[in-house]
Amino acid sequence: MSAVPNLLRRYGTLLGFALVILVFWVNLPETFMTARNWLNITQQLSMLMVVAAGMTIVMVMGDFDLSVGSTASLAGIVVAVLFTAGYPVWAAVSLGLVVGLLVGAFNGVLVSLIGILPFVATLATLTIFSGLAFILSGGKTISGRAIPESFGSFAREGMPLGEWGGVAITLPNLTIVAIVTVLAVWVLLEQTTFGRRLYAIGGNIEAAHLSGVAVRRLKLIAFSLTGGSAALAGIMYASRVASANPTQGSGLMLNAIAAVFLEHDEPRIFATIVGVLILGVLDNGLAQMSVDSYVRQLLVGGIILLAVAASSISRRRR
Amino acid sequence: MPFLSLRDVTKAYAGVPALRGATLTVEPGEIHALMGENGAGKSTLIKIIAGVVAPDSATIEVDGRSAALDSPAAAHRLGLRFIHQEMNVVPALSVAENIFIGRRYPVRAGILVDWRKLEATAREALARLGITHIDVRRKMARLSIGDQMLVRLSTAFLSEPDAPARLYVMDEPTAALTAEESERLFRALRDIRAAGGSVLYVSHRLDEVMALCDRATVLRDGRSIDSGRLSEITHDDLVAMMIGRKVEEAYPKPASAPSPEMAFVVEGLRAAGIGPLGLAVRKGEILGIAGLANAGQRELLRALFGDLAMSATTIRLGSATYRPGGPHHAWRKGIAYVPRERRSEGLVLSRPIYENVTLAHLVDHSIGGTLLNPRGERRFAASLGDSVRLKARDTGQRALELSGGNQQKVVFARALSGNPRLLLLDEPTRGVDVGAKFDIYTIIREMTAKGMAVILVSSDLPELIGMCDRIAVMRSGSITETVEAHGLTEEALLNRCYGRPAPVAA
After folding, report:
1. Residue in B331, B348, B362 closest to A204 by CB
2. Fold designation for B248-498
3. If you average pLDDT over residues A90-99, what whole number do you get?
4. Which of A39, B92, B173, B299 is the 20 to 30 A CA-CA neighbour of B115?
């Protein structure tokens, strides 16, 4: 294998990412390459980043979770319903996260203890969790006075970073949450015995089992964490729009899977971040260039196919 | 003129030779046996004939003319028919449909399946085996295992006018058949011979071969021996051809005798397909498990390792009672396991060597049981790698880049990583080249010298005799006898595996 294709294979997506940025920079010289726009992008992306990071945990084992979108919706609804019942913010948010962990654990039980294929199991729970969200909310959007002011303002505020070109720059709180989550998942997957065992399961489940890896228990925990992170994303979303709707997380699942697959040999958290950034930057740039949102869907889908096809072809050549 | 002739066939997998200049000729009107121990190259040779595997070099002739066996379709065109060892049937389809799997269905009006013709042709194929009791419209799933096997066998007898069958290759066809069903098959094979067709018959069952076949080609370490006419040699001659190799030189001598202290005792063990049985291993002792294929050896090791549900009246590890509780528990208690299939069961091929070595005792190499310490792991894997004579660039190399022998050494390094008290080995040298084999034997000797007990499952008889102190013989899930390895001949051991009384020694 010569060096150039190898480099292309490893950094091809990064190269494509740079190209996309360059195209937008040239076409949008005033607005695209500004600190404000980038901070805006990271805020828009923060939910997807959290879901994709959580998804990476199960994908390391060769599984995946289709139910993250409805888990996010469900968690948002749970928090909003608790608000209407008068719970304080900290309690409602904690319980929302617990619900995420529990529904994730339910996925884990279906996959690891009962042995249902992740695709089938989480497709079914996708519908179940979504139904739960509708039942809890009565099918309506929960908003207005029920949502505490401090919960809604969290997403609008951030950490001041100082001034740049006479404009105050702040790092949005949601971006901070996303960064912390990504770092936590990175530590978990790359720096702990837990992560090492997940990689072993993903590499060869039988060898891992015979080497004493508690495959079932680890799968259960991994699915719980994925569910928990999906719930976190749903709560972030609810904070951002200061309301909760039983369908508001539904767009997250496809994008999260796309992001994880966009750059991969083995799913690694770094690759996931690049995938999320590519999707986010594309969306942001195309929107600024006033490209119609349907055309945007077309372009984004095409680019995902192109990237995955390129990596498949280069792998086959090995 | 032979119908099929392969000369000077060589084939190596990733540098490990499977065939080194083997020759096979099959005459028309002959039932020809292909024999040899596991790993001698039989399946490679069959795959070459089937056009599934390309030889590194070979001269292949059919009817005296040079022929290319470069695809299964080419082999089929030349009139070669195969019944492979693995049972592959589609339970949900009918008997007739199973017989026609992979063939073109007869059609009417260009597109519609001609079911009547399909069934009639299938019935005809079964009739070649003298079978009339199987309804070709029944679902395969509703047939007994033996009947399913007969249906599979009959696929080879399907008449095909455009490429008439000339040679039937049968790999262990009687494994799942009763004596009566086998006899039916033999009758069909003799009919084929009488009609001028040929059969290449692969079997471990010596009696069958002696009774049915005209000649044999014996493979040993990838080389071939022509037996000549089987009617002119004895059973024992054939065994000698299969194994004839000097035992003494290939195995390192034990450094010390086993200690009298028991390391592991199990009594009244029962698990799916095995038992009741008992065995005992002393510290520093190697207990061999011999037996024909699928006599329960693999299940025995899995049960002891806690990966197969079992019950036993007594199990003692050292002086304490031991209760199997899954692989994790076994590793913690000092039982290590080297599984049979190193690629599918032993290694996480996509991960580096050091991760594979530390996987079973990862907590011991971490900080506080949670945080990884890759530098420490690499150091540990490197030192253990040295002691098992692992040849690798560095411990960060991925396991899949290693040769078979070195991959096996990585599995051994993991097994030894926690200083186990009992080592369970399942075919530890299969597919391993000669040099690495000797290294592995040396490692086992070094470990037993330190007091580790070993249970060694192997189908390699010289290996069992050369390495073990005692050998337990398994048949149909039970241990039929346990014998001292010292002074045992391969022939005597093989006879015990077959459950035949040993011929009177001189």
Report:
1. B348
2. Rossmann fold (3.40.50)
3. 97
4. B173
